[in-house]
Amino acid sequence: MSGCCLAEFVGWSALAIIAANSLYNVCHFIYTTFLGRLLGHGIDLKSCGPWAVVTGATDGIGKSFAKQLAAARLNVVLISRNSTKLQKVADEIKSEYSSIQVKTIAVDFTESQKIYNTLRDELNKLQIGILVNNVGMLIGFGQRFGNIEDDKGIHDIINCNVLSMARMCHIVLPQMTQRKKGVIVNVGSLTSTIPTPYLTIYGATKAFVDKFSRDLAAEVKSLGVTIQTVHPGYVATNMASHMKPSLVSPHPDTFAAATLNTLGLEQRTAGYWTHKIQLYFTDLANFFVPRHVLEKGAIKHFGELKKAALKKTSR
Ligand SMILES: NC(=O)c1ccc[n+]([C@@H]2O[C@H](COP(=O)([O-])OP(=O)(O)OC[C@H]3O[C@@H](n4cnc5c(N)ncnc54)[C@H](OP(=O)(O)O)[C@@H]3O)[C@@H](O)[C@H]2O)c1
Predict the structure, then answer these.
(1) Cα of 4 from ligand 1 centre, angstroms
(2) CB neighbour list of residue 160: distance below 8 Å, 6 or more residues apart
(3) What is the CA(81)–ligand 1 centre distance, in A?
(4) Are the beta carbons of 205 and 231 closer than 8 angstroms?
(5) Which band of pLDDT confidence, cut at 50, 70 and 90, is reported for residue 259?
(6) Which residue among 160, 239, 269, 279 is best mutated to probe the pocket of ligand 1, counting the most ligand atoms within 8 A of its Cβ?
(7) How far is the CA of 310 from the centre of ligand 1 (A)?
(8) How much distance in Å is there from the Cα of 13 to the middle of ligand 1?
(9) Does the pLDDT at position 272 exceed 70?
(10) Closest CA to 130 of 89, 77, 67
(11) In terms of DSSP bridges, do strands 225-230 and 268-269 run parallel, antiparallel, or are they unpaired?
(12) Nearest residue by C-alpha to atom 14 in ligand 1
């Protein structure tokens, strides 16, 4: 084969591979987002166990997960810091789904050791079908890491976003593997997939979620336990206070419903369809775009978001 023919052959082969890969991705997107559930595929949560546990369950995405799981006829354990808010959400769920049992556990995940004794004692009494590790906090938005004045906040975010996930998985996994049934949903963030200067510690905690969750999934798959990693983009909650509900930043109910529809169909997902498209392109950008270009874009993006947030709070 002459040099020219060889180059032509390589070019066409590369194009064919890219076309086949793109076609696969489009079909996979349509299946996991729209068709899978309609065809009755995915996980029957009721068959995994009668109880669902949700951390960070009194607001935002966690509250929406709790409501959707109750709607799926699972009893729910709500875990957050504030007893009054916990009771309010428990009452809301009980008034809507009278046959559902709701338990509340008030703990602060910024604490490290002691709370896990309480959680282990309480959760070991229940047959847990699904755990949603949703709790998360954010510090130092738009600040240089070295300029964060809140020393305790650095410990708090690692305890809340990282340690809580590892310890909660460690508590429920023995009963799930023993029964060869169970689902754990670990909520990360799209920030784990892109450079996040000026959001450094938050992005890093979410990178832990990605690595930990994916490796754990591989470890327990053969034992009948499904671990799903979810990387939301913006969702219109208190945490993303600058965002109004829209296609780019869905209402948390919309986000939680879409994510639960992907259970058993996708091990790593962004949950909601517009976020899935973002995840696809960020993964692609990480491959094709030089890191310093992505960093420049991220600094501009987070700078603009900080300005918008400051403008909103000064109104
Ligand atoms: N919203 C977004 O745009 C977005 C994007 C990507 C990823 N995420 C991730 O999604 C998850 C949920 O976020 P969200 O936006 O729904 O947050 P949110 O609206 O701020 O709600 C956080 C929930 O966690 C509880 N919580 C906070 N700190 C806690 C602590 N130290 N101990 C116990 N409970 C605590 C809060 O309840 P109390 O205050 O009553 O304790 C509340 O129920 C987080 O992991 C977040 O990182 C969010």
Answers:
(1) 58
(2) 109, 110, 135, 136, 137
(3) 11
(4) no
(5) very high
(6) 239
(7) 20
(8) 47
(9) yes
(10) 77
(11) parallel
(12) 60
Q: Which two tokens stand for residue 113?
A: 């050791």
Nearest CA to ligand 1 atom 8: 189
Structure tokens at 106: 């008030």
309 pLDDT higher than 90: no
pLDDT digits (tens, 9 = 90+) for 247-257: 999 999 999 99
* Atom from ligand 1 closest to the CA of residue 191: 6
Distance CA 77, CA 144 (A): 37
- Closest alpha carbon to 198 in 78, 96, 93, 300: 300
Distances (CA, A) of 294 to 32, 63, 300: 28, 33, 10
Q: Structural domains in the chain?
A: 45-314 (3.40.50.720)
Could you tell which of 131, 235, 242, 274 is best to mutate to test the pocket of ligand 1, judged by most ligand atoms within 8 Å of the CB? 235
